[in-house]
Amino acid sequence: MDKTQNIKETPTSLMDEEPILEIKDLKKAFGNNHVLNGFSLNLFKGENLVIMGKSGSGKSVMIKCLVGLIQPDSGSIKVMGKAITTLNRTDLDELRTEIGFLFQGSALYDSMTVRENLEFPLRRHKSRFKNITDTTPLVMEALESVGLVNAINLMPSELSGGMKRRIALARTLILKPKIILYDEPTSGLDPITSKEIIALMRKIQKKYNTSSLIITHDVDCARVVSERIVLLVNGINYAEGTYKELAASKDQNVRAFFK
Ligand SMILES: Nc1ncnc2c1ncn2[C@@H]1O[C@H](COP(=O)(O)OP(=O)(O)OP(=O)(O)O)[C@@H](O)[C@H]1O
After folding, report:
1. Which contacts of 219-226 are long-range, i.e. CB under 8 A and separated by 24 or more positions?
2. Which among 53, 126, 133, 231 counts the fewest CB atoms within 10 Å?
3. 52 in ligand 1 pocket by Cβ < 6 Å?
């Protein structure tokens, strides 16, 4: 099926805006393995955009291209108007402070308290926070946003899986990112904790006016959290639309995601 049949026009409410993140015709192959074959997407301010694709379809490769960890073979990626592939190391590092990551495993530092885990990114990006002498208000605000103020002095070993994920999110929020990349935010969590994380993602979107790219296999998460969904199939943005639109599609490749 011609992919253009599946691609929805950009929603009219967003049409006048510059995308905060723009991927155009991205191609990446490893030898004969052509992973991305002209993938494109626009992420707009304040939007939650879900990317779904089956295992091995290239979601992680796309994210790595996006943050400059992998050089694509061709195509362009602009984040807040800056072309990623042309930035030098310093500019790329600076741009990365505007992007929050919540990756699978949410790796907190086991030997540090929750407070120290949250302070870590502030120390790493010293130049941006050099005028801050007391980190407590920032730590408290981030913990408040994820509903875990009381966990400030706990060690990661004292936290449940869901709490760890919340703290990892707080550690991301402390840098006040404009864009958040979530990689499987609900994987490994029980249904109730997943629902709590999903609700939290919505709350964060509203409170911080962040734009998010969310990679997930979790159809429930996609339904609740997204304004739009992009399906990555055969290395391209095969289909795009709201949950409702895609869930009603008759295309077998699209239906496969909603069974
Ligand atoms: N550095 C690399 N060198 C060679 N091949 C790679 C490299 N990174 C990824 N690949 C290949 O690219 C393809 C896509 O991998 P990727 O990790 O992006 O999939 P994914 O969609 O994120 O999968 P999953 O949902 O299982 O995490 C796979 O065939 C993988 O083997």
Report:
1. 219/257, 219/258, 220/194, 220/195, 221/50, 221/185, 221/186, 221/194, 222/50, 222/52, 223/247, 224/198, 224/199, 225/48, 225/50, 225/198, 225/201, 226/48, 226/49, 226/50
2. 133
3. no
